[in-house]
Automatic annotation (TrEMBL):
It comes from Pseudoneurospora amorphoporcata. Residues 171-219 form the N-acetyltransferase domain. This is N-acetyltransferase domain-containing protein. GO terms for molecular function: acyltransferase activity, transferring groups other than amino-acyl groups. CDD domains: NAT_SF (cd04301). Pfam families: Acetyltransf_1.
Length: 278
């Protein structure tokens, strides 16, 4: 079987460690607030300021994924550092509004000076469950995140007892994917998805599951399973679908009248939960 996910030699996939935390979190923060169909639309007016907030207070999801031991990244081994001081520390993030003021997503991207270019976070929800108290800081920075989770669960076609794994090593939950804007279109997310499936299979997992807010990721996770060496028999199943462009819910106005609103402002993306049997 030919691999649809092979990368040029300059790119290296490896497991993430906590030394990668600031770089991985900067990638995820920047991708969410400037290139995600939902968050970039909702927070366009304060994206730079919110990026600082998410980066400084909302790193729990990223650190938890890294500490789980099932998160991976792609490094550009031919990366050219922009500043000599970055090279001296194997990378740096210059997100400091006082020392290095930024006024746009492009400014923040220029201040991301490190060779990590794409990340995929995952964890075993039974072995290392999320601490929702610590996760609250992420919800505070992205207020509609809890709603996104709840409506995804509400549209899940599986019986409630089948939605969460019961044993360690049963299902690996994906909890974040992002590629730097200056490296998009190179097949990095596709390669990481294939690698994650392969490593999950090797570790004995029966399945992996991903919640998306990106139409391109939908295509990857629906099509890549079954095309990867080592997991040729993998099959994807979409278990929840919410079209955020047409989604509506009722809102009671101050005058008591009920109207239908789209809290996601018509973001043109289909939210999916995809379960992949390995």
């Amino acid at each position: 079987m030919s691999s649809p996910t092979a990368l040029p030699p300059r790119y290296q996939i490896r497991k993430l460690t906590l030394s990668d935390l600031p770089f991985a979190h900067a990638i995820i923060t920047h991708a969410n607030l400037f290139h995600n169909a939902v968050w970039s639309r909702l927070h366009a007016s304060d994206a730079v300021e919110r990026s600082y907030r998410v980066f400084n207070t909302g790193a729990y999801n990223t650190s938890h994924g890294i500490e789980s031991g099932f998160s991976y990244g792609i490094l550009d081994t031919e990366y050219q550092y922009k500043r000599p001081e970055s090279a001296a520390t194997n990378g740096a993030v210059y997100w400091d509004p006082e020392l290095h003021p930024a006024s746009s997503g492009q400014d923040l991207l220029e201040q991301m000076d490190f060779p990590l270019v794409s990340v995929a976070l995952a964890y075993d929800p039974v072995a290392t469950p999320l601490d929702m108290v610590k996760f609250q800081l992420v919800f505070d920075a992205l207020p509609l995140f809890p709603k996104l989770v709840s409506i995804t669960e509400a549209h899940d076609i599986r019986p409630p007892e089948e939605r969460k794994p019961k044993e360690v090593g049963e299902c690996l939950f994906r909890c974040g994917t992002a590629t730097r804007a200056d490296y998009e279109g190179k097949g990095l997310a596709r390669a990481l998805a294939a690698h994650l499936m392969t490593e999950a299979k090797k570790a004995g997992f029966k399945a992996t599951q991903v919640g998306t807010v990106n139409n391109r990721l939908n295509a990857i996770w629906e099509r890549v399973p079954g095309q990867v060496r080592g997991v040729e028999g993998a099959k994807s199943r979409v278990v929840s679908v919410v079209d955020l462009e047409t989604y509506e819910e009722e809102e009671v106005r101050e005058d008591g009248k009920v109207r239908k609103v789209n809290p996601f402002l018509g973001a043109k993306v289909v939210r999916k939960c995809i379960y992949v049997t390995l």
